[in-house]
Write a structure and sequence with these properties.
There is one protein chain. It contains ten helices and no strands. With 230 residues, it is an all-alpha fold. The longest helix is centred in the middle third of the chain and has 33 residues. The radius of gyration is 21 Å and the shape is elongated.
């Protein structure tokens, strides 16, 4: 007799594929229509599953909504994780030089430009529009994503800026300067900014051009930080 669990790995993989397909479809519809207008029936139809599948994997529409936000958070965390780890390892290792701190700061902003602007990342357009909608609605469902960005982006960037101005990371000036530096990348999270540039699509050339200028701006800011700290 065959073992009862012989085919479980295949079934589990199909289940993961189905869950991911529902999530990606939901993300697209929530982004395009908003939470209230996007129906679970439409999500199920476009995902190619039956309606009870949504209840099976996510309990209800709100559970699916929260799962979509968590999915975005996981994608963001994966994209930022390498530079976050390098920042932490460098700071833990001792007293890095000023040039090394600035290089890491530029790498962090580079990673954010990629996250916010690069069309090569799957689902970027839907992800950006979805987050914009959620921010406008001021829903608490966005709190887990904000916490990921706080831990993976804000905290390490504040640590770098704090070292550059010789102040603690929780200093108000450090916080303000950090937000201004990150804002150079975050502005490209807006679809209106891309439209204002006349870009129908965002290719590698556009992303590289933005990264080059943002790095130049970041290094110029860091030169001013040196003067401010002196």
């Amino acid at each position: 007799m065959l073992p009862a669990n012989r085919y479980r790995p295949g079934a589990r993989q199909r289940g993961e594929d189905t869950r991911r397909r529902i999530l990606e479809t939901a993300l697209s519809l929530f982004a395009a229509e908003g939470f209230d207008s996007a129906s679970t029936r439409a999500i199920a139809e476009q995902a190619g599953v039956n309606l009870p599948a949504i209840q099976y994997y996510f309990d209800n529409k709100e559970g699916l909504y929260r799962a979509a936000i968590a999915h975005i958070g996981e994608q963001a965390a994966q994209a930022i994780a390498p530079i976050t780890a390098r920042v932490q390892a460098t700071l833990d290792a001792g007293t890095p030089g000023r040039a090394q701190l600035i290089d890491l700061l530029c790498e962090m902003v580079d990673a954010l430009v990629t996250l916010f602007l690069d069309d090569a990342l799957p689902g970027r357009e839907s992800r950006i529009l979805f987050v914009s909608r959620v921010e406008i609605e001021h829903t608490a469902a966005l709190d887990p994503l904000n916490e990921i960005m706080r831990q993976k982006v804000l905290a390490p960037t504040r640590a770098l800026v704090g070292r550059l101005v010789d102040r603690p990371p929780d200093d108000e000036e450090v916080a303000l300067r950090t937000l201004m530096i990150i804002g150079q990348a975050k502005i490209f999270c807006s679809r209106s900014v891309v439209r204002a540039l006349g870009w129908e699509t965002v290719g590698e050339r556009h992303v590289d051009a933005v990264k080059t200028l943002v790095r130049q701006h970041t290094r110029a800011i860091c030169r001013s930080l040196k003067s401010a700290a002196a």
